[in-house]
Specification:
Layout: H1 7-15, H2 17-28, H3 33-67, H4 73-78, H5 81-89, H6 97-113, E1 117-125, E2 128-135, H7 141-158, E3 164-168, E4 191-197, E5 209-214, E6 217-224, E7 227-232, E8 246-248, E9 251-253, E10 260-262, E11 277-278, E12 280-283, E13 286-294
Parallel strand pairs: 2-3
Antiparallel strand pairs: 1-2, 4-13, 5-6, 6-7, 7-11, 8-9, 9-10, 12-13
Length: 299
């Protein structure tokens, strides 16, 4: 019978990892300078990821010691996005798929609420997650796609082993579902969302409105309490920019035509008009915006 590997055995084995990595890099040189540089860049990215994860582990451990009794260190690590991603890679995460998906949905619920919606986890069957979207406001198609991207991102990040997301119809007490079930996740096969970190968003004060340029896309971002909300910088009424717009409670006024848009209800305006919302979530501790590009479009 094989002897179980001890901590000393594991440490000794990984002490030689640097030599093995260098040997592999040297072998890539046989394929040319470009191949060797790509291999070195891959190593740099992996080292950077694990370095950031170790730094986060130390910070969480130090915070735990200062705060005194509270959640155990293992739980703090398991619920940190960056550290959890490393635990998932190695199959070390202490929570099952149902718990991870449920926690992920809890984190995006405030954002879904800003569009008048919510989501229920019906169940997890193997590698399939079943969800029901609920709500009472009428949502525009662009808002539907925005919620799809936000939920998909949260579920995929928390449970990368999930291969499909199914949506069932759920009627709210006040009317039909916020997003028709047939439209949910229908656009994801034709779009490839890219998330862009925008750390400056963390500096927005409650009630403040600011403009940003992300991947050549002009955005207008409002902060309602603790919740930042992002929209494309375009007024659908006067077909102009929203630059200079001011926020009164939850209403964003176009400085050109004066139309008021309710930013906490998917940017709804008068006469069925609406702004185009964009997913804005905190990912790995950094506010990030998702822009959906057609599959095959240049990044």
């Amino acid at each position: 019978m094989d002897r179980p590997e001890t901590l000393d055995d594991s440490a000794a084995r990984w002490r030689t990892a640097g030599d093995r990595i260098q040997t592999l890099l040297d072998s890539c040189a046989a394929s040319g300078a470009a191949a060797q540089e790509r291999a070195r860049e891959l190593v740099r990215e992996v080292v950077g990821l694990y370095g950031a994860g170790l730094e986060r582990i130390m910070l969480l451990a130090q915070e735990g010691s200062r705060d005194g009794p509270g959640p155990g260190l293992a739980e703090r690590l398991a619920t940190d996005d960056l550290v959890a991603s490393l635990l998932l890679v190695h199959g070390l995460h202490p929570h099952d798929v149902h718990r991870r998906v449920s926690d992920a949905l809890d984190r995006v619920r405030p954002y879904l609420g800003s569009h008048g919606g919510d989501v229920d986890l019906i169940g997890v069957d193997g590698d399939t997650v079943r969800l029901a979207f609920t709500g009472s406001c009428k949502s525009c198609p662009s808002s539907a796609v925005t919620l799809e991207l936000a939920v998909q991102d949260a579920v995929r990040a928390a449970a990368p082993e999930v291969s499909s997301i199914e949506v069932v119809t759920a009627e709210s007490a006040s009317g039909p579902a916020v997003i028709p079930a047939e439209s949910l996740l229908a656009h994801l096969h034709s779009t490839s969302p890219t998330w862009y970190p925008v750390p400056e968003l963390a500096e927005l004060e409650p009630g403040e409105v600011a403009g940003f340029l992300v991947s050549d896309t002009p955005l207008v971002v409002c902060r309602i309490g603790d919740l930042p909300l992002a929209y494309r910088d375009h007024c659908p009424v006067c077909d102009d920019s929203l630059a200079g717009a001011r926020l009164r409670e939850t209403l964003l006024g176009c400085p050109r035509c004066g139309t008021q848009f309710d930013v906490v209800h998917a940017g709804a305006g008068a006469g069925g008009t609406h702004l185009e919302p964009l997913p804005l979530l905190v990912r790995d501790g950094v506010p990030s915006v998702a822009l959906a590009e057609p599959m095959g479009a240049p990044a």
